[in-house]
Specification:
Helix content: 25-40%
Distance between the termini: 71 Å
Amino acid sequence: MAAKAPSGGGRIDSDPGRVRHLIVGIGASAGGLDAFRSFFSEMPTDSGMAFVLVQHLDPDYKSALAEIIGECTAMPVVKATDGTIAAPNTVAVIPQNAILKIEGGVLRVALPETPTARRLSIDTFLVSLAEDQGENAVGIILSGFGNDGTLGIEAIKEGGGLTLSEATFDHRAKFGMPQSATAGGFVDYVLQPREMPARLLEYRDFKAKNSIQGLAETAEPGRVNHLLNICAVLNSRLGRDFAQYKSSTLMRRVRRRMQVLHIEDPAEYIAQLRSLPNEPDLLFREILIGVTRFFRDPAMFDALAATVLPDLIAKGGADEPIRVWVAGCATGEEAYSLAILFREALSQAESPRKVTIFATDIDDRAITFARAGLYTDTIEADTTAVRLEQHFCKEGQRYRVAKHIRDMCVFSAHDLIKDPPFSRLDMVSCRNLLIYFESPLQQRVMSTFHYGLKANGLLWLGPSETIAASGRLFKAFDKSSRIFRRLDVAAGIPRPRSSSRMIAASAAPRSADADSIDAQATRMMAQYAPAYIVFDGQHEIQRFSGPVEKFMQPVSGSASLNLFRMLHA
């Protein structure tokens, strides 16, 4: 029987995708029974939260988990069936040999299609919970061996929910589920199971107050000032400029940190950001969270392999290298996926051409992870058995990207906003990153890609991204797969606007003495100083000095003072 919502509230909201109460997904393996008992022994029966338990079960074993949990709590505990409502003050338990998801606050039960799907049942539920409930989702990982739950915890944090994992002291459990989730940087609190209910109640009460008003959409202009101050602190402490990221994204990430810390006033959070040594880095990691995986959006990868790579490989000489830039590579899955596609295409074409994939990201920890090329066995769900055998090496419960694929990829930390771009590129892949940028920054980045690509080079964007205002720089090659071809026009990156004070200063008349001093300084610099170039934040040259022709020269075509267009190759 499906559980019914108790009387007195907790109804499903009119929006089928979001309910009013917290829904807590708890994952554990068969060894997590004691952790479940400890948790529910401390959880009040009237918390107003719904609990969904996902445990690794033998498909032929009749689980007694519902009955055991029923002895620890007065809340109704049921085995989930298709259509069970995740109602307040109820506990639903996954049945054996089943995959559990949630849609509109209603549980959906299905048979696992493969053994791999059964092993990833916690990830499956938590990812669906994140998509369904957003900020009302809570993910908890209890005892268990392996890595199931890590992707789900990442998805919940990405969606603005709360994440917890069990504090384990068994050094033999190095690769256990709680350790895997925590190592990824996606867990807000690491606690003993008996400590978790109190933390959840505090979080529930803070959310219920809805007291973070300074960052509400209606709080202009105060909200803007708060976000600008936060960006200024991150820039000064970490050297990272988020001022042109979408304010809605920044606001959501900041609100989440404030909820985790139980801070109501944005000004108080800014003070904490300035004083706490680790908070800028924690917020930095929060802003950068992105969900990725191997061959994400498989149909788009299939289109790339079928319509782009064979032609790209055939057009160059045997000794001509293929250069690809993956901007915003995160933990490396997309770069390695592209390397595998190129390897397969080169083999099919019997081509000896070399492919180098420059994979960059602003997050140095993600780059370190990517270089190692070691991933959990959850990649089995995204990668064919043939590719796993040919391009990966099994190491326990993990897969290491094979050396012949790793050697194709060069990973480096790189700030797309301010660091010099790569050049002479055949292809740029920047998927699911531009959606976080305001329009002016999007246009700057598109101009950067245009500069870096060769004539007729290709740009590959994410499924929710388009060339929009940069239509004069690129044209659609395969619109449905978001593949665009470079047009041979000047990028024309706009120079930054001058402030009124700067304009007034530049318009002021110069004295004869000032001109004389400048002339003398110029002669001295020309005689003794090395060549130098002054350029602005858009890489537009403002001043030359000395024999710069050794390093650069104008290029044919439309006139441009862009630094990277004039540098010698």
